[in-house]
Amino acid sequence: MIFRSLLSAAVAMVILSGTVEAAKSKPEQGTISKVEQDSGKESGTITVKVTPKKKKTDTAPTATEEKSFKITESTKLETVSGKKKDATTTPAKFSDLKAGSGVLITSDKKSVDSVKITKAKKTKTKKTAA
Predict the structure, then answer these.
(1) The domain containing residue 47 runs over which residues?
(2) CB distance 97 to 78 below 8 Å
(3) Among residues of the chain, what percentage have pLDDT more than 90?
(4) What are the two backbone dihedrals, phi and then psi, of residue 26, each rounded to the nearest 5 degrees?
């Protein structure tokens, strides 16, 4: 009887610990629209235009939204260069964040863990026949 209650309590704890880890949000990907640096510090706020991923069932274009992220001195900043397979990362500073740069932001609900700076994606232009 006691063994059964202890076993069920242990199973419940394992299940609950798995849901806590799943509470982390997915990385946000977008383009920086505004950078505000705190005076004399390697911290500040960035505003990013984020386009939600389009679902296969959606026919209408998805609207972009602007989100603000607070970057602290403990946030890990990296610059990513190269293609996906050959990508290399180098440490970056807050001053490397510029409007128009692409970013991949990993955060939990309270703070930003890391920011990866990438090149902004080029927009496709239609060629017109002359």
Answers:
(1) 25-54+63-118
(2) no
(3) 22
(4) -75, 155
